[in-house]
Amino acid sequence: MSESGNPNAGAAGYERAQFNDLGPDSPNGSTDVTLDLILDVKVMVSLEVGRTRISVRELLALRQGSILELDRLAGDPLDVLVNGVRVARGEVVVINEKFGIRLIEVVSPAERLERVKQ
To answer: How open is the CA angle 62-68-70, to the nearest 5 degrees?
Structure first.
């Protein structure tokens, strides 16, 4: 016990912070996880065909009909990005004269979380 008589007080007289338990019986410790709060949040979904690096000089020289060589082969799957993070891969399909994508591989939730942290 310290000089102050408080068993939580340190040698310099500082007291350790006390926090309430966040177990299932506490008011804010519900174990029911719900996504209802974020279900209506809008996110940007984009498809990436491939990437390339070019100089500003080459970029400024681009005209209608110019061709950029990408780092993927024709027929390779496209990356499906949500807010810039890859969440899946897919292939282009045409349905009623509109383009779509058929998902062929979905990144696991654990992998997605790990990529967001990076």
So the answer is: 155
Torsions phi, psi for 88 (to 5 deg)? -165, 170
Look up tokens 């939580």; give the residue: 8
What sign has the CA pseudo-torsion 41, 42, 43, 45?
Answer: positive
* H or E stretch covering 111: helix 109-117
Q: Which two tokens stand for residue 69?
A: 């060589």
Which CATH number applies to 45-117?
2.30.330.10
Q: Which two tokens stand for residue 11?
A: 């040698």
pLDDT of residue 35: 75
**Coil, strand or helix: which one is 90?**
strand
Letter for the amino acid at 70? Answer: L
What is the C-alpha separation between 91 and 108, in angstroms, rounded? 18
pTM (predicted TM-score): 0.57
pLDDT in tens, 71-90: 988 888 999 998 888 899 99
Task: Classify residue 5 as left (phi > 0), alpha (psi -120 to 50) or beta.
Answer: left
